[in-house]
Amino acid sequence: MKKVLTEVSKCLGCHSCENACAAVHSEAASFLGAVLAGEKPRSAVRVLAGTGGAKLPLRCQHCAVPACVDVCPTGAMQKDAVTGAVFCDAEQCVGCLLCVDACPFTAIVEDGGKPFKCDLCHDREGGPACAAACPTGALRFGEAEQGAVSAMEREILDILKGAK
Known about the structure:
This protein is an alpha+beta fold. It has one domain: Alpha-Beta Plaits (2-Layer Sandwich). 29% of the residues lie in helices and 18% in strands. The strands form 4 sheets. It has a two-stranded antiparallel ribbon. A two-stranded antiparallel ribbon has the order 2-3. The protein is globular and about 40 Å long. The relative contact order is 0.24.
């Protein structure tokens, strides 16, 4: 399955991923257009500063066994069996936000009483906008072996422990 892979050592902290995500998820479909139209662009990617100057482009990892899906009482938070993408069915969501608390990556945030998270730009041809916008390849969309994904997730969790 394809995933957005994070190579923390390559992140400059430029926030291009955040801007690209916000643009894709705006009605105007561009960051500047959204701001000029009075929208408040929102991004499912946040660039955090970790210990030792490390930058971390934090986003949903679309976990193999997602804790957010396990705690969802209505089944709104789901994992697509084909793509591996974890998503929220807004019509089933009651806004309990248990998924926000369950995410070990703090990658699900509350937005208007509902969860907001990376959807892998499922409607965007060419894959996730964050990876396409990353000038250094710190975020890359591609196939990944489970061992490499597990190592990447451990590194992110280690940085998060020092970033808070």
